[in-house]
Specification:
This protein has one helix at 56-66; strands at 15-20, 30-32, 35-36, 39-44, 50-54. With 74 residues, it is of the alpha+beta class. The radius of gyration is 14 Å and the shape is elongated.
Length: 74
């Protein structure tokens, strides 16, 4: 949806983006010792389907903090 601006479930184009704050535990993804990644919710207002995307600015921090999927993590 972020890239196509179209809902993959219902085909609707009534899409909104909500930026999530760091306070929601569900959306909190550690991107450093004192840093959490910023995430965006893309929601289809036609059917309610939603996607969760990590903001571009947080990707590098995530990579550094978590390492590769094969590692043991932080
Ligand atoms: Zn939809």
């Amino acid at each position: 949806m972020k890239n196509t601006r179209r809902c993959p479930k219902c085909g609707g184009s009534d899409i909104i983006r909500g930026t999530t704050a760091v306070n929601g535990a569900y959306d909190k993804l550690q991107a450093g010792v004192f840093k959490a990644a910023r995430t965006d919710r893309w929601v289809c207002c036609g059917c309610g389907y939603c996607e969760l995307w990590v903001a571009q600015e947080s990707l590098e921090g995530l990579k550094e903090f978590w390492g590769s999927p094969e590692g043991d993590g932080p």
